[in-house]
Amino acid sequence: MAVMIQHNLVKFQASERNNNVAEYSMIHHNVYCLIRYPKYLYMIKRIYGTSEEILLEILLNLGQASASNVIFHSANRLNEANDGEVLNPSALHQSFQRLAQDNFIIRCPKLAENATLLKVPTLEIEEKEKFAVPNVEIEPIARMLKEKATQLGEHCDSEIIWRVNHERFDVELRNVILVNAAARRVDTTAGELYHLILNLWRENSNPDSPATTPVSYNVIKDAIRKNDSSPILLEHFDHYLRVLHEDSAGLIDKPGDAGGGQFNLDYSKVFENLACASLDSIVLERFGSKALRLFRLTRIQKFMEQDQMQNVAMIPAKEAKMFTYKLLEHNFLQIKELKKGTSNFAPVKSFILYHVDLPQVVRTTLEASYKGLFNAMVRQMHDLTENKRLLEKHAMLESMLDRLKGDGVPDDEIAELSDTMPPAEKSLVEKIHLMSDNLTLGQTQADETILILESYLKFISKEL
Amino acid sequence: MGGRGRGRGNAVSFNIEQLGFGRGEAGPVSVTQPPPLFPSLENRPLPLIKDVENEYILVTQKDLSTRMRNSPFYLKKSEKINSTSYEKELPVLWNRMPAELRDETFTKRLATGKSKVTLNAKKKKVEDPDKIFAKLEKKERNESEVEEDGDGKEDEDDQDKSDDEKVENEDDVEEDLDEEMDDHTDYANNYFENGEAYLEDEEGQDDGEAQF
Q1: Nearest CB to B91: which of A39, A62, A123?
Q2: Residue A404 and residue A199: Cα distance in Å, rounded?
Q3: Cα of A215 to nearest chain B Cα, Å
Q4: How far apart (Å, rounded) are the C-alpha atoms in residues A103 and A166?
Q5: Is residue A1 part of a domain?
């Protein structure tokens, strides 16, 4: 339990009735984000560089830690990688500050003053202190590094604890998806432009609102000039802006004309389009392009009758019916019945209308994605534990071989050792590794779909 | 479904033509068993995307998982029960956690026994008044110590409290073991007699004859 609290998976508070009893609750989102950690690292590496990446990795491993601790451990790790070259910890300190400035790491609430007497400590923090980096004394750290200590003892900022800010990373992941969408729709320069504009929006607006605050044309122009982006962008950026605005994906919205044009981003619209695109590709892969035509048609026209569908989509009747029922079976289409009651004597005729209830379909697909993710994880676990003995033997053999090669043992002995493991087993180990890799990749990519669908549902519910 | 229309309800409520079968063709084959657990895939799914980003993610994921497994945070089963003070080994920030997690006897008991916690909660109410008085006296003493000496004594204070708790917990453990001694008798054990006494008493049956 303590380990989970340390890693921000569980939180506690004093119960209302009895101040000495703690009530624990799980933070689901953080538990789910465990699978996204490698993505965070990749993003940080791309935006900043290796030292920030190492800092983040150490922080992820420790859960919550003070700044000096993180810097100390990262310096150790870098030293190991560079074979003993002693690194200057002040550079790491600056990297740490950069991470805090962009809000990727956040301070944990600190102990209230009377906390040590209570059985359940109360933790509080003020809004402005959340990202303030304290002064870190570099000399003790440098000294400890030279002595090759494994633990940093008490130091001046050991009361100030940091953790990874998951919300900010989610925002960043979403932005990456949007930038990729822009780059795919138009071209890479448009992607760059979009990235810049996204940063402007993020600085100005509240991250929880369904639409950003508008940013004017002139501000965008200044930002582009400040950033030394490609010359093409400088010349043509108003063209790009117009193209992005007029594009049907809704990446940029123009609510007004003040200041040369106000531009903002309507999250709900963009994510609706993205979610629809994901659903479309899912339908396409599972059922075929004809089913896709029917699905898109129904989605755009809102309510359609069976005959209408097969006429407009230009698909032969029987096939149209088959695909319609298949889609219905898998809950991509929904039915609505309207009675056409005329007289009481004739049998009652009713209209059967097909429609796509987008939130519902998205929720079903989301469930299916979660299941797929879970299946991949379970299968991977199963494979690894079944063949654990074999894999361990293989790993031991590899490490022995490496050590011997380093010591300069002649090749015959090495060949002999590697023969202790028959080739059938070796190929089996290879197969297991390959399958495990594929499953991991599958999990990562399922996670992307889940992100899009979840964001859509989140922004839809905000609107309502 | 057919023929439930009112009045001259000979016609069925739907047209055969509407279903798309025409007159002579048969309907779909009826289903006789539940659908298979793993239905065959008609269309093969798209291949996984393998670009630079995903390669990197793969490598990092493996790295992270091995590091997490090797880190001291990864608690293996045997450690929990045997180690007397894993508090010092885990690099967890203990002063930010609720006191009950820091308390070793509590966590050890959770690892070995089952849910005796709830029993304890009930039993604490039935504590002897003597124990309560003793605790109150100790608290008063501790408080007066704190007032006199200030911060230096706070650690001792905490330790006294935790010692107190330990003593109390041990007593509770002993009380748990004597659960069967409700109301200080073994009555529950003797209520249902086992059948061994049945065959022993053959001599006393002479007396039994004269009872009316």
Answers
A1: A62
A2: 52
A3: 32
A4: 10
A5: no
Q: Which helix (H) or strand (E) holds A123?
A: strand A123-124
Residues A307 and A257 in one domain: no
Query: Which residues are paired to A303 by β-bridges?
Result: none
DSSP element (H, E) containing A163? strand A161-164
DSSP symbol at B47 = P
Q: What is the dihedral of CA B4, B9, B10, B12, to 10 degrees?
A: -50
The backbone torsions φ and ψ at residue A264, rounded to the nearest 5 degrees and listed phi first, read: -140, 180
Whether A133 maps to a domain, the answer reads yes
SS3 A111: strand
B96 and A161: CB-CB below 8 Å?
Answer: yes
A·B CB contacts under 8 A: 108
pLDDT tens digits for range A99-128: 777 777 777 766 654 444 444 455 555 555
Secondary structure of residue B11 in the 3-state scheme? coil
Angstrom distance (rounded) from CA B44 to CA A286 = 8
Contacts of A60 in chain B (CB under 8 A): 64
Task: Please judge whether B158 and A442 are an interchain contact, meaning their C-beta atoms are less than 8 angstroms apart.
Answer: no
Number of Cβ within a 10 Å radius of residue A420: 10
CB contact under 8 A, B54 and A444: yes
Q: What is the pTM of this model?
A: 0.68
Measured between beta carbons, which residues in chain A are less than 8 angstroms from residue B7?
344-345
CA gap A72, A80 in Å, rounded: 13
List pLDDT tens digits, range B119-141: 444 444 444 555 566 666 666 66
Instruction: Find the CB nearest B92 among A3, A42, A347.
Output: A3
Q: For residue B43, list chain A residues with Cβ-Cβ distance below 8 A.
A: 285-288
Both tokens assigned to B75: 């608690």
Please give the residue range of the domain that contains residue A141: 27-164
Q: Which of A7, A38, A120 sits opposite B57 (nearest CB)?
A: A38
Q: Are residues A203 and A231 in the same domain?
A: yes
Asked if A52 contacts A93 with a C-beta cutoff of 8 angstroms, the reply is no
Shared domain check, A116 and A40: yes
Q: Which residues contact B95 (CB under 8 A, 6 or more apart)?
A: A111, A116, A121
Find the range with the poorest average confidence among A144-148, A251-255, A446-450. A144-148
Query: Cα(B105)–Cα(B113) distance, rounded to whole angstroms?
Result: 11
Query: Is A5 domain-assigned?
Result: no
The per-residue pLDDT for B10 is 52
Q: Looking at the structure, do residues A142 and A214 belong to the same domain, yes or no?
A: no
- Measure CB to CB from residue B96 to each of A41, A121, A442 and give the nearest one: A121
Instruction: Label residue B118 by pLDDT band (50, 70, 90).
Output: very low
Measured distance CA(A413)–CA(A419) in Å, rounded: 10
Nearest Cβ partner for B58 among A5, A318, A437: A437
Distance CA A173, CA B53 (A): 13
Top residue of B6, B19, B57, B159 to mutate, by most chain A CBs within 10 Å, is B57
Instruction: Name which of A169, A193, A166 is nearest A179 in CA terms.
Output: A193
With 0-12 CB in 10 A as exposed, 13-18 as middle and 19+ as buried, what is A7?
A: buried
Predicted ipTM beyond 0.85: no
